[in-house]
Design goal:
Elements (H helix, E strand, L loop, with lengths): L28 H11 L47 E3 L5 H11 L3 E7 L2 E8 L2 E7 L6 H7 L5 H11 L5 H7 L5 H17 L8 E6 L14 H12 L2 H7 L5 E4 L14 H9 L6 H8 L3 H13 L3 E4 L13
Helix pairs in contact: 6-7, 7-11, 8-11, 9-10, 10-11
């Protein structure tokens, strides 16, 4: 059963996201470190710290121990060309493929994505994203509530003043009858998805995974399918120019030998399913677009999504006739 996750409390938000100039600029780190810390990490290690990307985090030694306890090991994904774990460079590994690798590795931990001043943090359990926060104000739960008309900026300010910075806003809204639980689940799922989708076009920056459970207290979680999340994210965010670079017309695609996702577990439209069935190594990307009946961008976004999550691989094109077996 799908459950909801705690929303970002959005302390200090006092105006609608649609009216503020520069609303998408990241908040200063000192304004959010405590906020993230209370939800995710121990006091000794804020979630979005200011340590340089790539520098490993070392937990404090436990009292009476000379060295800190080791972090749980992260199994390495076996797919060829899979991202290195636990950390790496987004110039060589894009976020969609990283999500697929974490699914294959069944990783549990906190993934930090950073590009310049922008930072996103996503919690994973058994390879699935369950919670996400960001230092971009427009991606915070409080701003989403105002944007979707759940409450006015004035009402939001009053509730935040009443509950204080350490209480989850989404729980307070449900308790007061301002937000029903079904809508909260949907809004938090959208928040997690959109935070991740905002990183799909990143071609620079870093990622780092800290293994092991990171929640300081029990929290309800939104569990999303990484495969469907990647497919939908590319449908929404990928540009035609970028897709044409990633998928040349004469490229041939075929089913991966050991796909990490079953087709039935993915949210796929009828036209996409037909195109997926035609991708047998005998047809080029251009052939598949024509056969799909979909527009070029939609076709390419789906095919690229299938490559990123590992259900289609690039192959040397085979002639259709070579796959036929004749009998005398």
């Amino acid at each position: 059963m799908m459950m909801s996750a705690p929303g970002d409390r959005g302390a200090g938000v006092s105006a609608p996201a649609t009216t503020a100039v520069g609303a998408d600029l990241p908040a200063p780190a000192e304004e959010i470190a405590d906020d993230f810390d209370s939800l995710v990490f121990s006091q000794a290690r804020p979630a979005l710290d200011e340590i340089s990307p790539g520098t490993p985090l070392v937990p404090r030694p436990w009292e009476g121990l000379a060295m800190p306890l080791p972090s749980p090991a992260i199994p390495s994904p076996t797919r060829a060309g899979a991202p290195a774990l636990p950390e790496g460079d987004l110039a060589s590994t894009r976020v969609p493929r990283l999500l697929a690798a974490l699914h294959v590795a069944r990783a549990t931990g906190a993934l930090t994505l950073a590009r310049g001043p922008l930072k996103k943090l996503v919690l994973f359990e058994e390879g699935r994203p369950v919670f996400a926060v960001s230092n971009v104000p427009s991606e915070r739960f409080a701003v989403r509530c105002v944007r979707e008309g759940v409450l006015s900026p004035e009402a939001l300010g009053a509730i935040l003043a009443e509950i204080g910075p350490r209480s989850p806003l989404n729980e307070a809204l449900v308790a007061r009858g301002v937000l029903d639980d079904a809508r909260r689940v949907r809004m938090i799922g959208d928040q997690i998805s959109e935070i991740l989708w905002s990183t799909f076009a990143w071609r620079e920056g870093s990622y780092r995974l800290l293994a092991g459970s990171r929640a300081r207290r029990p929290i309800a979680r939104m569990v999303l399918c990484p495969g469907s999340l990647v497919l939908e994210g590319l449908r929404r965010t990928a540009t035609l120019e970028r897709l044409r670079l990633d998928l040349p017309d004469m490229l041939a695609l075929a089913p991966a030998a050991d796909p990490p996702f079953a087709h039935g577990d993915l949210a796929i439209a009828a036209g996409e399913a037909s195109m997926l069935g035609q991708a047998d190594g005998t047809k080029t990307v251009r052939d598949l677009i024509v056969l799909s009946g979909l527009d070029e961008r939609s076709s390419l976004a789906f095919l690229q999504g299938c490559r990123e999550i590992g259900i289609l691989d690039e192959v040397t094109r085979a002639l259709a006739g070579t796959r036929r077996i004749g009998f005398m």
